[in-house]
Amino acid sequence: MERPADDFRPVHDVRPASNARHAPIASPPFRWDLVFVPTAMVRIAEDGVDTWATIRALVNQSSTMSRIAYSTFRRLDLRSFTYQGNRFTTFRVMHRNQNSTWALKINALITEALPFRPYSDPLLDDPTRDLAQDTLADPDPRANTSVDLELGGDVYPRLQRDGHVFSGIGDVNAFQTTLGYVFVGSIRNMPRH
Q1: Residues of the chain with pLDDT under 50
Q2: How many CB atoms lie under 10 A from the CB of residue 161?
Q3: Spatial separation of the C-alpha atoms in residues 109 and 87, rounded to whole Å
Q4: CB 3.0-4.6 Å disulfide test: which of 9, 16, 167, 177 passes with 22?
Q5: What is the reported pTM?
Q6: Residues 2-27: tens digit of each pLDDT
């Protein structure tokens, strides 16, 4: 059927014609409900200071910059500076293993958006069962403990390493980083109720 010349609607217009019958849009019968987010336990210390604190970090390559919780910034008594109207702090991020000499100096935006809990409840599925504890970035990636630091895309290239391992759970993979393996992916297909 050819359209009239004065009909300027796009060919793929999803708006129903005034006299057309249409079914309501239905949601799919499933959803990816439980997703592992890449977390790591790291040590942080102010540059030039030997005392450190261990905190949980989210490894988030899609974030444009690293961020730290205002409460953590205050608790650790870090110094701040202002840049383009935002408050930042500088500190060293170190591997959770005290025998490691790896360290990375970063600038992080101080934010009230952190801390947050990555899950509503601790996750039951354990992707770590086939990996040694000392190879994990977070010894308990299923835990629902607060994330106080977000390691963003500004430092991700220095964390990334080649290699990943399928965990055997849903679509969860363990990706190698300088901090150890981080787990990413959907755990399972959850039916809608």
Answers
A1: 1, 3, 6-33, 191-193
A2: 12
A3: 6
A4: 16
A5: 0.78
A6: 545 544 444 444 344 444 444 444 43
What span, in angstroms and rounded, lies between the C-alpha atoms of 49 and 22? 67
Q: What is the pLDDT of residue 26?
A: 40
Closest by CA to 63, choosing from 103, 138, 113, is 113
Task: Give per-residue pLDDT as tens, 140-153.
Answer: 998 889 999 999 99
Structure tokens at 34: 């439980």
Map out the domains of the chain with their CATH numbers.
35-186 (2.40.70)
Q: List the structure tokens of 182.
A: 């981080």
Cα–Cα dist 69/84, whole Å: 19
